[in-house]
Amino acid sequence: MFSPSEILEIKNLLVPENKIVIITHYNPDGDAVGSSLGLKHFLKQMGLEADVIVPNDFPKFLKWMPESKKIIIADYKRKIAGEAIYNADLIFILDFNASHRSGNLVGPWLEKAKAKKILIDHHQQPDDFDFVYSDVTVPATSQMIYHFIQALEEEEKVNVDIAQCLYTGIMTDTGGFRFRSTSATTHRIIANLIEKGADPAMITSSTWDTNTVSRLHLLALILGRIEVVKEGKVAILWLKRDELKQYGFQKGDTEGFVNYGLSIMGTQVSAFFMEDLYEDFIKISFRSKDDVDVNQFSRNHFNGGGHINAAGGKYMKNIEETIADFKEKIEAEDF
Q1: Which domain covers residue 55, as residue numbers?
Q2: Which one of 74, 150, 198, 267 has the fewest CB atoms closer than 10 angstroms to its CB?
Q3: Ranges for the DDH domain (predicted)?
């Protein structure tokens, strides 16, 4: 957490005359959107206005959250987003650890911005900003926003809108509270959020019970060809661009697909490879169990990173070459 002196400095920055912007990472997920909107609603309770900017669009199943329609999508509103960042006095950087993680458009704007910058994130090896709250042991940035509210001694300001958003972020980034990093503290915060008005049944239904025909077709396709290597320890799933087009892929349709590989008995790593819909590179998602470190593996071999048990990457070869390289590199890993 921020030091007491840093908290005091931040409090002095949280004033109506300062223009505040909240930015999250490229391809926003549930924790990115939940933490950003949760912080926006909290600042509103403090009598402050803040613009939430995301680099590109986010999945439809997250657009039920209060004021999600007010989020500025930089890909669609470049001038508005650019001017907001340029004119900001204070920028919150949520759920990513380095400027380039906000994409080729927003990243350079963020680097050039003159505003004071506050990082709140749980990924490893954060860049240096004016204020840094980085903790890789916390399972979700949305939980860190709650800790930040506590540090400001403003917990009584948590209302139903804040609770709904933060609950969503924690739920999605813990895989429904299943991942190892989910702690007793996480559950205490969840209990507090429920007491403040978060509705677990509604949130779960709105966020996860949203299958489309295209998603189910794609899921059936990859489940029908899962490959298991390294003596049953590693599962491989993949999708090609023409398959995405064939089944009418929409953003968010493949969310959670990588987790199916870990549901196979005996697997310790699941890797999901997908051709980008528009550009010639492969998006990669890694998940693991126990102490198998896919973060370092992704950093070493696939231009990515993340957490010990959840990481992503990007590879410039075609999908066949990418999977072949993965198989070679994963066989050399000792686990």
Answers
A1: 4-208
A2: 150
A3: 19-170
